[in-house]
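Handoff note, outgoing to incoming analyst
You'll be picking up this chain. Sequence as last confirmed:
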Amino acid sequence: MYSREVIQNKNDKSEMVAYNVPGMPIKTCCSKQSDFPTLRIPNHWHSDFELLYMLKGNLNYCVDGVSCTVNEGQLLFVNSARMHYGYWEKVMDCSYICTIIHPSLMNNYLLSKYLDVITNQKAPPFLVLRSEISRERKIIDSVLKINDYANKADEGFELGIMSCIYDILKNLMNIIKAVPDTVQTDSRRLEAMHRMTGFIQQNFKEKISLAEIAASGFVSRSTCCEIFRKYTDKTPIEYLTEYRISKSSELLIASGHNITEIAQRCGFSGSSYFTETFRKVIGCTPTEYRQNR
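Most recent structure output, in case you need it:
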């Protein structure tokens, strides 16, 4: 089943992941490019591990300000608590499986003994894994098995999932230990970015100024712009506008609200400005978008 990604935030501004595997803090779903009319997966972060397997096409991804491309048949591992977003340069037939796993699935002994090897600040923020490399293929196979177990939900499927998770973590640990220490991120700026994007995602319905965005991150307006440019390649206002358009596209499909109501619910000053902005970002009017979905 294909799933649209809708971001909600916790108090610390991290994403509140909508887990969908019964009794387990795991989410697994299949998404496609057409779920994201702005051609961007919104910038977000969470404490969970994210494993994204490309079924078809390719996807650009930026993690803690570093970009990569995930091609068909490859898997992207995004480490815990890393700021990340995805984007495409052009429209294409693209789909992927996204599996999100919270580290709390490990028991306390294993958490204390092994988790820091994977999640410490010197560990890589992400890895792009390839099927032609044996130990990387093992991780890909385990991720696909988790998706299969979750979809079938046969008796004892939880045990199968846990077996896969431990295999994934063991192989990840071995790969990460072999990777040279990465340059430590600017944790203060990344923390400010967490707060500012969370502020936008929680308040996009209201009138928001650059000064308010900067204040939410406890930085100056110029530093705010520098941080957004580093982590999203956009200005804060461009990010806000794009996020509003993304939320409006969801309402155009999932609700019966008229254009004026949707404009108001997504923070636009009026339906004319909303229509003009939507056309500029998406390439068609909100009405045309609704009719063609």
